[in-house]
Amino acid sequence: MKISVIGAGQVGATTAQQVLIQNLAEQIVLVDIVDGMAAGKALDLSHLAAIDGYKAKITGSEKFDPINKSDIVVVTAGLTRKPGMTREDLLKKNADIIRDIAGQITVLAPGAIVIVVTNPLDTMTQLFRKVSGFPANRVIGMAGVLDSGRFCGFVSEAAGVSPDLIEVMVLGSHGDLMVPLISSARVDGKPLTEVLPADKIAGLVKRTKDAGAEIVGLLKTSAYYGPGTAVAQMVKAIVNPGQRKVLPVCVMAKGEYGLRNIYIGLPARLGKGGVEKIMEIPLNPVELEMLTEAGISLKRNWNEINR
Length: 307
Description:
Number of domains: 2
CATH class of the largest domain: Alpha Beta
Number of strands: 14
CATH superfamily of the largest domain: Lactate dehydrogenase/glycoside hydrolase, family 4, C-terminal
Shape: globular
Mean pLDDT: 95
Oligomer: single chain
Radius of gyration: 19 Å
Strand content: 15-25%
CATH topology of the largest domain: L-2-Hydroxyisocaproate Dehydrogenase, Chain A, domain 2
Helix content: 40-55%
Structural class: alpha/beta
CATH architecture of the largest domain: Alpha-Beta Complex
């Protein structure tokens, strides 16, 4: 398994580190246009591998050529959010970056499964798919795994229960219109609504939606430990298809939940072909309405970038 990561910043480097320590690839390639960054981080990771006994070969380059024939390519490259900047502010600036990267991957790794992390996530994933011409099942965005992890962490803290006893899922767009599913959320087997009061849950939902901005406000740059680990979880589901793992990821809707021809966060089973099936799970009327609103907003963004 050869996995390449485009963008060797904090998110890309953390992704490569997680792929390494989880033994998900025999070969890892980092690419970044900044002189020496990819090579330097690859060298550092190779020392980590030597210390802990990992066998993956890790290389870094400013050129795209080393991604040749990659099985999975993770795209993290792009401008990061600064304090006060929304994901939508990044729309046009990162679109040009995605167009260039898509052209490179199409030539060098035409059979790859691509995981897009660049923000604004949903629109950049759809743009990559359009420019590359790849089938929709091989172009996936990372959002819901991260957002669900954030929601899980906040619920865990509020309820005083270990995260491994909490079941939550966040769908919709990667932004203000994300849809945490309260109706199916469980804490140690009990409905979330029986564990925490409604006003507390509403506060946790708001904090989940604002988590990215909260981190940017503290760090003065975007999150990276959470996003990199979320990408690795998606990679693991693809590399180990026997798990039949269902994750909330950004996929092309083809009629599911009344949505069509738009990339949006939905539950999907991942496997060796990428997206194997979009799963339709029960939503209450409020959740379905929120998901529909997210789809309308994302179509608006998509139309704007295609003017």
